[in-house]
User: What shape does this take?
Amino acid sequence: MAELSGAEGKTLLALARETIRRYLASRERGGEPAPEPVFLEKRGVFVTLHRDGELRGCIGYPLPVKPLWEAVREMALAAAFEDPRFPAVNGDELPGLDIEISVLTVPRPVSGPGDVRVGVDGIIVSKGVNRGLLLPQVPLEQGWDLEQYVSYGCRKAGLAADEWKRGVTIETFQAVVFGEKKHAEEA
Assistant: This one.
């Protein structure tokens, strides 16, 4: 899989914002595929929306099931209009939203929590049909140590916070993260 440049990240961020804007204006979900070959590769991706530094929506594909450009477009719409934790984004909010895109590596199983690198690895915690995913930037944003990170992963999966002590499956992945706020600060 090809790595993504900062310019390609800006293109994906613009695609996400334009997709949300277009849907708010006309309820149109479509769009042309991005021409760069890297955008045609299937990649896992999450789109996260923040407003005033607070989470406003976050949905994604943990596995590479769609071409990157299509996954970004679909997850931008899902984060804005389908995250069950929040009401749908309205047109007045769009200018104040900060969009962040996380492009994921393929998850791989690890032997236990000791193999998780806080701030580097995202985690998927599962047991039976329960699964919870946390992006690698989350424990840094929350100030969590390893035990808090894995415990919250268990809670996100609908399990007891200490279920990892009794045995869960943990997979890790990494992410290249592009955010409008970060790009604005670099400009």
User: Anything to note?
Assistant: The chain has two domains: 6-104, 108-173.
